[in-house]
Amino acid sequence: MAEHLLEVTGLKQYFPIKTGFLQTRMLKAVDGVSFTIDSGETLGLVGESGCGKTTVGRSLLRLYKPTAGTILFKGQEVNDSSIQNLRKQMQVVFQDPYSSLNPRMTVADIIGEPLDIHKLYKTEKEREEKVVYLLELVGLNSDHKRRYAHEFSGGQRQRIGIARALAVDPEFIVADEPVSALDVSIQAQIINTFVELQERLGLAYLFIAHDLHVVHHVSRRIAVMYLGKIVETASADQIIDRPLHPYTASLISAIPVADPIKARARHRIVLEGEVPSPLNIPEGCSFRPRCRYATDICAQQTPELRELEPGHQAACWNPLL
């Protein structure tokens, strides 16, 4: 038995970008990311837009062929030869429920397509029963199976996407910003659906989002990304209560507080400058141009992710200890 359900080591994903006539440069979307996920666990992956979160998720599922690194699922390497057999165990829920569902297919066909591909039924009646079961599992009813995607709200469409992912009975799901395209009033319902499904089916998630508050609610551990690298990882409570990386601290300070008195008393950490281009990442620490604690060593050497407190890792020369 493998020690972890999923083990990622040194994952890199570079894309060639044309910068001029016969000139190309490598865009380092993901640059040496490592983490593990256990059975039934949720790892939250957070960071600003463009930091490489979605690329990590798609690389795990071989939607992008990784430039370097190893991905082990239950001890088996995920590569071109093994991915077809692993598709049933590793699934994805996409960010935009408006573009990830085929508008020409009924809900029954959208959810039933994975059943068709993997031949998971013997009769049409069994197929229909499985579709109805999956609809009810995600909070929809059997009457919805005859309708088309455009007839549903955003939250309902995302539930259809979740049902499609569950059709093959997976053990691991990449949830790629599954609530960012939804109204705030609907986000909590979808998040609770993920939590309930995990408790009922024992699922493991890589939950990708840019909202730390959302990720804290659903995750056991959190990894914070910045410009293609993981800069901090710890339990969800440790990250929120005691961030060690200045970037994480700034993200936490931006979480809205409902109480106006507490909100006025909080110290908002405003980052100066723009996020550097992945085509032109600064030498040393990539966060250095925006960090108030930067020193000479930050410009000279890239900090490695190291354990600074029990179970708490950060890649920083001047952590907030």
> What is the 3D form?
globular
Number of helical regions: 11
Low-confidence segments, given as residue ranges, are none
Structure summary, number of beta strands: 12
Largest sheet: 8 strands, mixed
Q: Report helical residue fraction.
A: 25-40%
Instruction: Name the strands of the widest sheet in spatial order.
Output: 6-7-8-3-9-10-12-11
Tell me the Rg in angstroms: 21 Å
What is the SS-derived class? alpha/beta
Give the DSSP E fraction (strand runs of 2 or more residues).
15-25%
Distance, first to last CA: 38 Å
Could you spell the SSE succession in H and E letters?
A: EEEHEEHEHHHEHEHEEHHHHEE
Overall mean pLDDT: 91
Architecture blueprint of SSEs:
Blueprint: E1 6-20, E2 23-37, E3 42-46, H1 53-60, E4 68-73, E5 76-77, H2 83-86, E6 90-93, H3 107-117, H4 124-137, H5 154-166, E7 172-176, H6 184-201, E8 204-209, H7 212-218, E9 221-226, E10 229-235, H8 236-241, H9 246-253, H10 260-265, H11 296-300, E11 306-309, E12 312-314
Parallel strand pairs: 3-8, 3-9, 6-7, 7-8
Antiparallel strand pairs: 1-2, 1-4, 4-5, 9-10, 10-12, 11-12
Description:
The protein has 321 residues and is α/β, with parallel strands linked by helices. Helices cover 31% and strands 24% of the residues. The protein is built from eleven helices and twelve strands. It has an eight-stranded mixed β-sheet with strand order 6-7-8-3-9-10-12-11, with helices on both faces. A four-stranded antiparallel β-sheet has the order 2-1-4-5. 39% of the residues are buried.
